[in-house]
Amino acid sequence: MPAPLANRLSHFEVDTRLDDWVAWAYANGINERIIGFLRFRPDLLFDFDPAHSPVAFPSPRSWEFAHRGLRKFEAQPELLRSTVQVCVEPAVGIELHVFITSLDQMPDLDAILGGGEVPVPTEVDLQYAAAALVGQVIRTAILIYAGRFPQREIGNALFKAPAFAAWAQAVADIMIDD
After folding, report:
1. pLDDT, tens digit (0-9, with 9 covering 90-100), for 29-74
2. Domain ranges of the chain
3. Quick check: 178 pLDDT over 80?
4. pLDDT over 80 (residue 118)
């Protein structure tokens, strides 16, 4: 940008933080598979290299574009693959597409909710995707239901449950912000 033009604008440097973007994504209905993918590959939230002059590159904005493409072409795998590639760049788009299409290997949600013995996937990307799915279930079912009780009744019963203690211990490192 020529200096006289740049002098007419205000320039801000903005840091991208995955947790901030994820909070925004949940609040704006971004597909949880994209959120799960970025939890698996946090380095891809923003990956711009001006030396390559890319047309498309991973950025918070382009992940929203990928979400729109996923919503529109989910039932058409070839169009979906091409769409996400042009949103976030070809190699990243292929990686996202593989992540999304591998979700048919996910554990059975009904079996999980029924308390059955469900094997945990061995693939790390599927573990992140399963965590996103379980997170959605927790938010939309248990917490909404618990929100109808008076606060004093929720805390004691919830905190005494063995399942809550185990869950809290498992997620303590990501729940406590330094």
Report:
1. 999 999 999 998 999 999 988 888 788 999 999 999 999 999 999 8
2. 14-146
3. no
4. yes
Give the per-residue SS3 of the chain. Answer: CCHHHHCCCCCCCCCCCHHHHHHHHHHCCCCHHHHHHHHHCHHHCCCCCHHHCCCCCCCHHHHHHHHHHHHHHCCCHHHHHHHHHHHHCHHHHHHHHHHHHHHHHCCCHHHHHCCCCCCCCCCHHHHHHHHHHHHHHHHHHHHHHHCCCCHHHHHHHHHHCHHHHHHHHHHHHHHCCC
**Whether the predicted pLDDT of 82 surpasses 60:** yes
Per the CB < 8 A criterion, the answer to whether 44 and 92 are in contact is yes
Task: Tell me the average pLDDT of the chain.
Answer: 84
What is the rounded CA–CA span in Å between residue 136 and residue 152?
25
Higher pLDDT among residues 136 and 83, named by residue: 83
CA 30-35-40 angle, to 5 degrees, is 170
Q: Are 99 and 70 in contact (CB under 8 A)?
A: no
Is-contact 46 60, C-beta < 8 A? yes
